[in-house]
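Researcher: Let's try something more involved. This one mixes different molecule types, so please make sure each is placed in the same coordinate frame as the others.
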Amino acid sequence: MIQIQLLETALLLGLYILLAGGYALFYTLAWMWHRSSIRIAAIALYGMHGLVAAGIVFWAPLWLGWKLLLIASSLAILAIPTITLHHLERTHGTGSLSA
Amino acid sequence: MYRSQKLAVKYLAAAIALFGVMTVAGLLSAYYYINPDFLFGMLHFNIAKILHIDTLVIWLLMGFMGAIYWFLPDELGREPVGIWLAEILFYVFCAAVAVVAVVFIVVQYGGSDQASLWFINQGRKYVEAPRWAALGVVAVMVVFGYNVIGTVIASRRMTGIVAVLMVDLIPLVALYLDAFPAVTNMSQDLFWWWWLVHLWVEATWEVLIGCIMALTLMQLLGTSRKIVESWLYIEVALVLGTGILGLGHHYFWIGTPNYWLGIGGFFSALEPLPLLGMVVHAVYDAGTHHMKATNRPALYWMMTEAFGNFLGGGVWGFMITLPQINLYAHGTQWTVSHGHFAFWGAYACGVISVAYLVVQKTRNSALVNGAAWKWSFAALNLGLIGMVGALLVAGMTQSFVERATGGSTLRAFIAGQEDPWFVSGMMLRFVFGLLFTFGYAILVYDLLTLGKRSVSVVAQPVSP
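Model: All components are placed in one shared frame. Result:
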């Protein structure tokens, strides 16, 4: 690993999770408020998350196993908000909320 | 009010007081980095650091116990069994903490003998308290467990939350037995020590705060038992599923076999995923209640818990959890940054939320609001974010200059400590620490005077 790649890779890993959180946040807001602009923001955030994941996979000097784990995690991250919200609505016994 | 709830108020008051000791000791520790000669020959950096870290553990533990003593009688419909013993032990606990603190400050250290282990310092990070005090902590935790389990048996009543709590109390007590050093091999000692530190923090405490937040949600927002219990089971499964073997990320560099690199890295990398679900849940709950409740500070602190846990544990932790990064980052200010953020998000915010809830109930306040809590909320969170940001910069500098570039030599260590980015980071940490202390002072003022100031209590019904 070249020295500067240490910081770059670590920051990319942090950004990877931060963007996943942003996607989950906006996806939930879009689900509750039915706003297409927020839905687009959620898609954009997941797209940026995907780009960061691709950056890590193709550029970062991490072991291949970790890169495969990141790809699998990105797929899980895509599904987590949907699954969580379905379960939330089932337990709360409500339909989607509107503002 | 039950006797148990009066005891809860005392525990929470003691917790908030120790939160202050932790803050002052942290500020002192931060100042040593700016002025290493400060209190030279009187009070060393290591003592201030011990006070900072140990009071962190104790104030959170007291906060958790206060929360459980508050909710337990309502949950089981009776006074907890053996509450008189818990009342006595509260004072013993407080006296022991005070004696240990005085010994740390005045005596500081002793010889390499059993007497030092028993009466001065056990020499193990986070659990430095001398052996007599550690035995006392075990006694307090055993009585705490007896209060909970005995009450369940006596009341012949069981709820899902209490069932999870009962199961959690067993490892909570058993793991603390690991606080007593028994082996002289450092690798072996660290191996078992991490069982205590990691499994308390990332397993049993997570479950405990999950139970407390579930009970808080029911009182604060009137959320149904079915919902909170359903989520508690999911959280417990996910947290334990990733958290227990996430222990491996502490085993990377202490002389354990290589397979811990894979196990630790894999399960640690999964740890942020449940936190994402927590963010979704928090936003959903906030949306359903439009961020309105009769106790706004308690609600806001609870929401901050979800986001703080995700950012501090998830984002900050993920940066340094894979072995190839961790090789350079472990033991630097980078991990300190992660530790501060994660503890704040995962636990401290939750305890503050419960403190506000208890204050509202004890003072019969219809609506808790006002300006003070907002100032405190802003100053504490901005101070904390500023500190972890500054520590992140300092830690990255250390990892880069001292570890990656310098090869971890003594010369590289000095170069790292003298690097302008590191120095600036540590100065900024102190400045934001002052802001945090300011926020703490307002928090104390707010908690002490809530319900006594006309501005904070408005006698108007608000639907939960």
